[in-house]
Amino acid sequence: MVAAMSAFRQRFAQVARQARPLRPNGARNTRSYASSHGEHHEHHAHNVEESLGIPVYLTLGVIPASIFVYWISRPGQDGELSTMHKWFQKISKEYGRDWEQSNHLMTAAIEQAAHDRHLLYGAPRGRHFELTYPEAFGHGSQMNVPAGHYINLDKVIAHYQKQHLDDEARKAKKLAAASQHSAPQDAPAVRVGFVSPAIGYGLFAARDFAKDEFIFHEAPMMTALFNEKFSADKNLMQSQVRSYRAVLAGPSRDVATVAFPALAARTGIAPAPFEEAADILASPAEMGRYLVHGRFAGSTVTREEYLSYTSRLPVAAAPSEKDVREACLEFFKQYAFDVRRAARAGVGTAAAAAAAAVPGAGAGAATHRACIYLLGSLINHCCTPQSTGASTASISCSGLIKSTSTSSAKSSSSRSSSSSKGPNCSWRIGPSGLAHFVKPRHICVQARRAIREGEQLTWDYGKREKGFECECDTCRSSGWFGPGLGNLGYLCTVL
Ligand SMILES: C[S@@+](CC[C@H](N)C(=O)[O-])C[C@H]1O[C@@H](n2cnc3c(N)ncnc32)[C@H](O)[C@@H]1O
Prior knowledge:
- The chain has helices spanning about 1-20, 55-75, 85-120, 155-180, 235-250, 255-260, 260-265, 275-280, 285, 305-310, 320-335, 340-345, 410-415, 475; strands spanning about 190-195, 200-205, 215-220, 220-225, 290-295, 295-300, 335-340, 365-370, 380, 425-430, 445, 460, 470, 490.
- By secondary structure, it is of the alpha+beta class.
- The protein has a domain at about 190-395 and about 410-465: SET domain (Beta-clip-like, Beta Complex).
- Strands 5-3-11-10 form a four-stranded antiparallel β-sheet. It has a three-stranded mixed β-sheet with strand order 2-1-6. It has a three-stranded antiparallel β-sheet with strand order 4-8-7.
- A hairpin with a 3-residue loop joins strand 1 and strand 2.
- Helix 5 packs across helix 11.
- The chain is flat.
- The model is unreliable at about 25-40, about 345-365, about 390-420 and about 480-495 (pLDDT under 50).
- The chain binds S-adenosylmethionine (SAM).
- S-adenosylmethionine binds next to strand 2, helix 11, strand 9 and strand 13.
- One of its GO terms (cellular component) is mitochondrion.
- This is SET domain-containing protein.
- It comes from Canariomyces notabilis.
């Protein structure tokens, strides 16, 4: 403070000196030699701008700061705590709470660590070691073992013999179970039928199937690159177009265009006349050409149904390369199975991606192989009813179907019948578990429950394209649109 005051005095004296008027030249008692031009020129004093210096400002700043601190430290009326006091209290309370919490966590962690340590110290040590090869019986110290004397190993041998026999029995049981889940019988399995002009074809059971029975096993018709985000990547689209063109150039051309008329129309191929299409649709040699197990049993598609479906399809007059690419991409979005994902998931439930479109998806999604199957890709989607909850309308595919208010009696009846609703099939792609007979990339369709002859085969596509209007039995019977309005379908906006 003393130093600041002294600096202030010095500065003040300096400013005062500079402010004094200059004496006339003649009154000067000192002579300047600064100029070589003599004394006849008038000399002005240099005008040096000097600031007051930081200490002055600091000193001046201290005054309002002190007033402010004084003001916030004063208690309020009626002995109310001062603002400063309240502020400190608030900070210390928050800090104290954090401190207490971290202390508490730390103590709990230390206690747990101590407990675990005691547990490990106190745990009885394993006193036996698995011998991994027979010669290990003979290993051991030769100390104190007289020549020709060996430890009696009868009990050890009996133990391992028993273990071996138990293992063999377990394997035999597993094989017996596997033989029950043998490859689909080489018997009529499915026929193709028509569902509605909006849904198109579907696949129907050609005989009764028991729960878990394999229905058919089919090789892929087309395989192409596929991006799980369905992004319109050029390589990916070219691969799809190539794959479709390869089919069109081969012996499957007719069956591919009849089975998938919408794609054919977009690529410029008009739907075949009904007589021609009917022969192909009913022919095991055509529709069943990719079957490995199970037989194709014909078609129930009538002329009216066929025409109601195909007459709606706009046939592109001269589709450009871009049009064909887009048509193929769209087709893959809706009909392809993501082989890698399905293989990972084993029996497919929600994993495969028959219609899993994610609009606007970009780079970064994994690109791998996807397959289109001639029969497998004709199986329609059915939502899985939720087994719990009080809503008859809620179904597994969508969080967007909101609960409808239902009576408890209604909800319990929905629960009890849920096992007979929903998709009746599941699929597996490639060999997995007991379905060792399935070849890589081949699809095998399995009954999830008993299926009667004539029943439509369905499964849960999992994710679905935004705006997909589902017309499956689950949605129609959910009463979402009220009695009699089920046919309107429900707008599934999932994904
Ligand atoms: C994998 S394909 C199934 C075969 C298709 N019905 C056909 O005739 O080509 C999927 C397409 O079938 C239709 N589809 C399948 N299940 C449906 C459902 N539950 N509700 C409405 N349309 C469905 C949709 O047009 C969908 O894009």
